[in-house]
Design a protein that fits this description.
Layout lengths: L9 E4 L2 E5 L10 E4 L2 H9 L6 H16 L6 H8 L9 H11 L5 H25 L6 E4 L6 H11 L5 E5 L6 H12 L4 E4 L4 H6 L5 E5 L2 E2 L5 E4 L2 H10 L4 E5 L15 E2 L2 H4 E2 L2 E2 L9 E2 L1 E4 L6 E4 L5
Parallel strand pairs: 4-5, 4-7, 5-6, 7-10, 10-16
Antiparallel strand pairs: 1-2, 2-3, 8-9, 9-15, 11-14, 12-13
Helix pairs in contact: 1-2, 3-4, 5-6
């Protein structure tokens, strides 16, 4: 089965990490070369890669260190990685790698085993999602789930089910229009783009009958943190009695969404887009990158389980 470039957007070739620059899509399919972990950390901070790409990049940073013969720097590098993004916390990942470094098995083997498990777990999530769909369903999605939407559609097609999609623009970073619509269209699937403020209208007109979104953080009680705008979609889906499914990472140690730290991005990212000023000078912006969707609004959590 052919995968979207977003399914596995990070590669390690020799001692160089290649990072798919998601901010350049759909105009260009370009990879950033990271020769040093600081360059890779900057790519995370600047959202050149996000979601599963950031998880992959964390692991490839450690593999790069090992290939560069700099294994003694693992703890210092882990601390730098943990400073990059607050909502998608990498501490559990970095702590896991540090624990492996003190174990009996070679660290490189442990990391490669984790990556293999991650790949199969993502495939399992796509398969579970496809099973929840029926022939003729129209799925609304928000933001981007790193290559899983076209994979879900491809699996459903093998099951003789035709699925269509509505994708929100997902402002201000436009992941829905730049990434989701791009990869679905590239894979040959029917996708309609709408602005973020059209969701209630589209649901009221019965143009969609399922919602599938991703999550950057899952709390123990089922609350999730995902791209800002997810919460209002969940509330609206509940009002219209539309199933709301979430493709989730493993749960963290946070008891509820109230304990998840929300990242506030620079207001410039909302006031400007690719150098074009969208608001008058002096106007302020407020850009929380994520919101919390309560677990009781979620029809089903499609959880990631990595077996190594």
């Amino acid at each position: 089965m052919k995968f979207s470039p977003l399914f596995w957007p990070i590669q390690l070739k020799g001692k160089i990490i290649y990072i798919l620059d998601e901010t350049r899509l759909p105009q260009e399919l370009v990879y950033i070369k990271a020769h040093h972990y600081r360059q890779a950390c900057k790519a995370i901070k600047d959202m050149k890669t996000r979601a599963v790409g950031q998880v992959l990049l964390v692991m490839y940073i450690f593999l790069q260190l090992l290939k560069q013969g700099r294994g003694k720097e693992l703890a210092n590098v882990a601390a730098e990685i943990n400073k990059t993004r607050p909502t998608l916390s990498f501490k559990s990942l970095t702590d896991m790698v540090l624990s492996w470094s003190n174990g009996k098995a070679p660290l490189e083997k442990c990391i490669l085993g984790f990556l293999e498990g991650l790949k199969y777990s993502r495939l399992a999530q796509a398969e579970e999602s496809a099973r929840l769909l029926k022939d003729g369903d129209v799925v609304l999605t928000h933001c981007n789930i790193s290559g899983l939407m076209p994979l879900i559609a491809a699996i459903a097609k093998k099951q003789r089910k035709t699925i269509k999609f509505f994708a929100t623009e997902t402002r201000p970073y436009m992941q829905g229009s730049r990434l989701t619509a791009w990869e679905l269209k590239r894979a040959g699937f029917d996708v309609t783009l709408i602005t973020d403020n059209m969701v209630a209208s589209v649901m009221s007109l019965k143009k969609v009958n399922k919602v599938i979104v991703g999550a950057d953080h899952l709390a123990l009680n089922g609350d999730i943190a995902n791209k800002i705008g997810t919460y209002q979609i969940a509330v609206t889906a509940r009002y219209f009695k539309i199933p709301f499914y979430v493709i989730c990472p493993p749960p963290s140690d946070k008891k509820s969404g109230k304990e998840i730290k929300i990242e506030i991005r620079p207001d410039k990212e909302m006031l400007e887009y690719r150098g074009l000023r969208l608001a008058p000078k002096g106007a302020k912006g407020y850009y929380p990158a994520f919101d919390i969707t309560p677990g009781n609004l979620i029809t089903k959590h499609i959880r990631m389980e990595i077996k190594r």
